[in-house]
Structures are given as C-alpha cells and as structure tokens.
Specification:
The complex is a heterodimer of chains A (325) and B (337). Chain A has 325 residues and is an alpha/beta fold. Chain A is 34% helix and 22% strand. Classes of the chains: A alpha/beta (325), B alpha/beta (337).
C-alpha cells in the first residue's frame, strides 16, 4: 500500500495538478480565484462545494481553458498529463457538462447532428459509423428508441433527457477527465437520482476522473472521493468526503453541513442558517474571508488569511481555530 | 378542528394539448378531482415532480386561473359567487410568493415603493403611514429600513426574497401560497429564509400552502403534506406520519431519491425509471407506467384516496410496503408479489 503510494508520487505524474491558480478581472483588481490548488488522479472523483460566487464554476472553466470574456488567468498553473496514453502526444481530453442542458444545446441542430459531429471531431468517425456510435452512446446513457431520437431537436426532449444527451456528447470525446458543473441542480429529484447513478456507472466503466461541482453536499457525498470546500475564490478545506462530513475542521464547512436540511426521519432539527451573507469580491474583509460570519473568529483572523494546515490524514484546512473533531 | 378557511371540492383543471397543428386537441388534467381543506393557521406542503400540477393547484386556490370544474370556498364564500367587491376582499386576504425574486420584482421601482403599493392601492394607509408600515415590515423580515430606497439589482438574492415575502405579508393576509419560494436560493440563504418563515408563522395569524419539489426543505415548514402525481393527490397526511412510513410507491420513490449526506450510501439503483409524461393520460392508476409494483388491477381500476396507517393513500397495494424505503426495489418486489 505504502509502496504503491510512493510509486505514484515519484514516477507517475498526476492527471491534473492545479497550483496557486489566480483568475482576475484585469484592471479592476477583483480576484475571482485567489490561489486555488488541488490535484486529481485517474479514476478519482473530486467534489467542489460552496455557495454561489465562491468560484466553483470558474475553477472548472479555468481547467478547461474556457474562461469567459473579460477574465484572465494571471497566476498559477493548470497541468494535465496523461497516464493512459503516454505514447500519444498532446494533453488528455476533458469533457464538460453544465447545469442547464437545454440552453447548452444548440436549438437548430438535431441530437444526431450534434453527436455525430462530435464523433467526427474526436474519433474521426463518419457516415453510418458515426451514426451507429451515436446510437450506442444514446443507448448507454439510457435513452430509448434511439433511431428516431437522432432526428429530434433539444426542445422535444425534457431537461433530464437533454442532460443525458450532454453526457453522451461528453463521452464521444473519450475523456480522461469529465467536469460536471451542477449537473443535476435543474432536475427533479427522481431524475437527479438517475443521472447520478449513470455518472457512477460511467465512471466505473471508463475509469475517467470526475470533478463534480455542486452546492448540495448530498450530491457530493454520493459521488466524490475527495471534497474541496470553496469560499470567495479560495479552497478552505480539502478532505476525503467521509472525513469532511464526519469531522469538518473549517467552521465554514461545519456551517454548510448544519444548514443542509436533513431527510432523516429521526433528525427533526430545522437547518441552522449561517449568519450574514457572502461578501462581494471587490470588498473582501481583511484576513480570513469568513471571519465576519464566524463564531470562532479572533483578532488573529482579521490580520492575515490563514495558510492551509494539515488536520488529519489527507485532510487540510485553512483556519486558525479549526473545529475539534 | 375549526372550520376550514379554504376548502375545495372535486377541483379539476384541464388544458388543451395538440400533438400536431391539425390534430384534434386532447385535454390533460393539471389538477384532477382535488378535495382539500385548510384550517386557519394550517401549513400545507404540496410536493411532486415538475409537471405534477403543483403550481396549477396553487393558482387555482388563489383564483388566478379558473377551474374547469369543481368548487373552491374561502372563508365560506364560493369563488363562483364572489362579486367584484368580494374578490377585492379576497385579494387583500391572500397573496402569492413566487420562485424567482428577481423576476417577481419591478427593476425600475425601489423595493420600498413596491412593498407599499398594496397599502396605497387598497387605500389602507396614506403615504406617510404606508412608509412607516413598510419600514416596520422590512425590519420584521430581517432587512434594515434603510434598504427601502434600493432597487432590486442592488440587493442579494436572499434580500430580494425577503422583499418579496415582505410584500406578500404587508396586508396581513390569512392565506399565502409559496410557490417554490426558496428553491432558487443558496443553501445557507435557504436556511435563513426557512428560519424566517418559521418565525413569521409563529407570530402571524397565517395559513399557508408551500409548493416545492424539495422534500428536504418542506419537512421543516409544514404540518401536513400532499404528494401530487399527474394532477392527482396520491398521498396526503400529517408530515411526520408520511415521512415516518410513506405508503404510496411514488412518495417512497421521491423520498428514496433524495441524496443523503451519508457517503456510505452509494451506488443505489434509482428507485424509479423514466419521468412524468403529461401527454400520457392512462386509464387506472396514473403512476402505473413507472411503478415497479403495478399489477393488473392498477390498469383496470383507478385507486382513490383511502385511509392507510395515519394518512390517505391512493394505491391498491398501500398496505403491503414495509416501513423502510431503502430496501432495493428488486428485493422488495419479490417479497410482496
């Protein structure tokens, strides 16, 4: 076990290494991401969790090199290196799926055109080969009557089916890393369970790594191996997901867990709100960004942002006063 | 129990639906034969997937859309018999809170003005008086009175939702319909609004209907719940009793679909396949096409609400399901077939 671990550390580069990533709005001195670091191995699932505006999605865009207009990466690095295809030149492939599948699909193209063009681009398939593969992919993601579906347009599908099409499209590139940005937030709870199960299955089948972004700790708990909690453009805690949920160290992680309403019949306590609100990125508080909302804050917290410290095996938190286990 | 402030009998709403431009219009029911009582100060939750008819029911209750058939009484007056004056009175006593606070607010008007509008329109207060009352209401919902002069875009999502709640409560209504009122908010803000609603209910003489697809939130906000599927109520009862032992396979599937924060529970097979299709009006039980436990009787005979355990359930096989919802469907099927 120990040896295997060392072997990976020394000889094989990790699939994805993000180091001190900074994304800014040039000229306005607003840091959307402020030194984000994490890494991911093949087959691993990382969950990014936090409130809106914390930089979860921006991290994904930066990894995919698709930052929106007006934002630029001004520091740090994103390194992708492929283990699976060392002979092949080039970077491992990344696919991405988004929150609102219906608006992510082009309304004037059929599902068939959409999938076949992706298969042509990524796998060089043409004509009936591409069509057969498109049908296989649609079947794989759980769509029935695939032959007629290829001629359908996105507006003829429900949100859940469009998300399945998005996933099929993502698979067409045979990605080594799939980034799922709030893939089930716009869906009903029954469809959410189906999509999460599909992602679980596909991950096991293809061995791809997965980054799942969600504000719902339930979704993170279900899919992720590791979880990273983000607040105002920084990762404040990373831990194996069991550890994070059982023994959160950062007061923000603790508060996020407490404000999730529980479905457990024995737990009748209403969710505990976090006081205050997320600060705006152009007027972040001095020191730790969470200190104005934190009950454990001291004068130390207002002086300087705490650096990440180890609080357990593979468990790090950026806090001067971590919550005791 | 006191006399209900709101009562519906056999309430139905049908919409026309065409499969193509030239085909005959088929109708499907967004609400079908709904019988409902709401006591003063009662809190009722309505849950179901999108397309189950929850929002239509909310609009029917407030008289915002006319029913195809059936009747609604509010404080003993039938909607059908209301005069213009009665309707005005009804509008003062009821209000609606919608999902997206940004689109519910006028972007060109300060939020204070928007909240005071109702007081002025109904001539309940003069300008100076209204200003004072709105200020007090702002404080009540956790905003500062100084925020009255702001425009919606100058506020955060949580603050805007508080404004919408303030606007809904400014006339001291007896009945409020919350339609997905917290669904668009972040979890931490959602928890704040949930806490606010619980407080407000304690203080005000208020009954409400809380419409949502979120089975986690609704549990902390209501006394009674109605689960809807294709326009019908399939299970209804005391919230604790329904969550303790859900009897309808649809309720069970909804509850089992909610992701728990327990990482040990993984790789569970989704409890039901497919999704709700409003164009497929079926004879018999509306849920039978997706129900893993459907038998012949389900297609020949439409189940009606009947008492099972502590609640009302419309399923022929309601008695057969065990208390635990986590047992995998396949196992359960063998056991009960």
């Amino acid at each position: 076990m120990e040896d295997a671990h060392r072997f990976r550390e020394e000889d094989m580069p990790r699939l994805l290494t993000v180091q001190d990533l900074v994304v800014e709005m040039p000229g306005r001195n607003i840091k959307i991401l402020n030194g984000v670091s994490f890494s991911l191995d093949t087959g691993q699932t990382l969950g990014l969790v936090g409130e809106s505006g914390c930089g979860k999605s921006m991290t994904c865009y930066a990894i995919g090199n698709m930052l929106p207009h007006g934002l630029a990466q001004t520091g740090g690095s994103v390194d992708l290196s492929s283990n699976a295809t060392p002979s092949k030149a080039g970077k491992p492939k990344i696919s991405m799926i988004f929150q609102d599948p219906t608006s992510s699909l082009n309304p004037v193209h059929t599902i068939g055109y959409y999938l076949e063009s992706a298969l042509h681009r990524h796998q060089g398939l043409k004509g009936s080969d591409a069509r057969m593969e498109a049908m296989r992919l649609l079947e794989r993601v759980g769509i029935d009557r695939v032959k007629s579906r290829l001629r359908s347009y996105p507006h003829q599908f429900s949100g859940g089916m469009n998300q399945r099409v998005m996933i099929a499209h993502a698979l067409a590139a045979k990605p080594e890393l799939l980034i799922a940005d709030e893939p089930t937030t716009a869906l009903d709870v029954t469809m959410q369970a189906q999509i999460l199960h599909l992602l679980e299955e596909l991950k096991a089948e293809t061995g791809m790594a997965l980054i799942i972004v969600s504000h719902d700790l339930g979704v993170i708990a279900r899919l992720a191996d590791e979880a990273a909690v983000m607040y105002c453009g920084k990762i404040v805690e990373t831990a194996p997901v069991e550890d994070l949920l059982a023994r959160p160290a950062h007061p923000y992680a603790r508060a996020l867990i407490d404000c999730m309403p529980s479905i457990d019949a024995s737990d009748l306590e209403p969710p505990v709100p976090i006081p205050g609100s997320v600060p705006l990125l152009d007027c972040l508080p001095h020191g730790c960004y969470f200190h104005p909302r934190c009950s454990r804050a001291s004068s130390q917290c207002t002086a300087q942002f705490p650096s990440s410290a180890i609080v357990g095996p593979a468990h790090q938190a950026a806090c001067y006063h971590p919550v005791a286990a | 129990m006191s006399t209900p402030i709101l009562r519906t009998k056999d309430l139905s709403k049908a919409f026309g639906h065409k499969t193509s431009l030239f085909s005959r219009s088929h109708s499907f029911f967004a609400s079908r034969s709904i019988d409902l009582d709401l006591a003063a100060r009662e809190r009722l939750g309505i849950v179901g997937e999108s397309g189950s008819g929850k929002s239509t029911l909310g609009r029917l209750l407030l008289g915002l859309t006319p029913p195809t058939s059936g009747e609604i009484w509010f404080e003993g007056i039938n909607h059908k018999d209301r005069t213009a004056r009665d309707w005005l009175q009804f509008r003062i006593q009821t209000s609606l809170v919608q999902q997206n606070p940004l689109s519910a607010l006028n972007p060109q008007m300060t939020v204070g003005k928007q909240v005071s509008e109702a007081l002025l329109v109904h001539r309940i207060a003069n300008r100076a008086d209204a200003y004072k009352r709105v200020g007090a209401m702002f404080e009540r919902v956790g905003l500062s009175a100084t925020m009255m002069d702001r425009y919606p875009h100058q506020m955060s999502g949580g603050q805007r939702q508080r404004v919408v709640i303030a606007r809904a409560l400014i006339l001291n209504p007896k009945l409020v319909v919350f339609d997905e009122a917290v669904s668009a908010l972040d979890v931490s803000v959602q928890a704040q609004v949930v806490a606010l609603l619980r407080e407000l209910w304690q203080e005000l003489n208020l009954a409400y209907v809380f419409i949502t697809h979120d089975l986690r939130i609704v549990r902390h906000l209501v006394d009674r719940i109605a689960v809807m599927y294709l326009g019908r109520v399939v299970e209804t009862g005391d919230i604790r009793s329904v969550y303790h032992w859900p009897r309808h396979p649809y309720t069970r599937a909804l509850l089992a679909s909610v992701p728990t924060m327990n990482p040990a529970v993984r790789n569970i097979v989704p409890p039901i396949k497919g999704e709700l299709d409003v164009t497929k009006a079926l004879h018999g039980c509306p849920f039978r096409s997706r129900c893993p436990f459907a038998i012949e009787r389900c297609s020949s005979e439409t189940p009606h609400l009947r008492p099972v355990g502590g609640q009302q359930v419309s399923c022929h096989r309601a008695e057969e399901f065990p208390q635990s919802i986590t047992s995998p469907v396949a196992e359960l099927r063998e056991e009960i077939v």
